[in-house]
Amino acid sequence: MAQEQDNTKSLNIEIDEQIAEGTYCNLAIINHSASEFVVDFINMMPGNPKSKVKSRIILTPQHAKRLAHALNENIRKFEKEHGKVKDYENPSIPLNFGPTGQA
Q1: Distance CA 38, CA 43 (A)
Q2: How many percent of the chain have pLDDT more than 70?
Q3: Domain tally, the chain
Q4: What phi and psi values does residue 3 have, to the nearest 5 degrees?
Q5: SS3 for 4?
Q6: What is the pTM of this model?
């Protein structure tokens, strides 16, 4: 009977092939209102000053807080196994990744 109760609490999540491949992101922009958080994921390419949002996720404040907690917990576990993740407060690469020299 305990097995039956566990089965009723299980969650069946499916993912299609295209979504399973994922989308690379090296920039996230976060905005919020009183009722939602909007996270835009962007892939900035070197030498290309123009980029497009690749994915937008809209969350309630409660889900945004749960996501932040889950990310922090996973980073903690990652660092325990692989060492501290370096955080570059002043990145040496400008946001536009493009050349800045003069001719």
Answers
A1: 17
A2: 78
A3: 1
A4: -65, -40
A5: helix
A6: 0.70
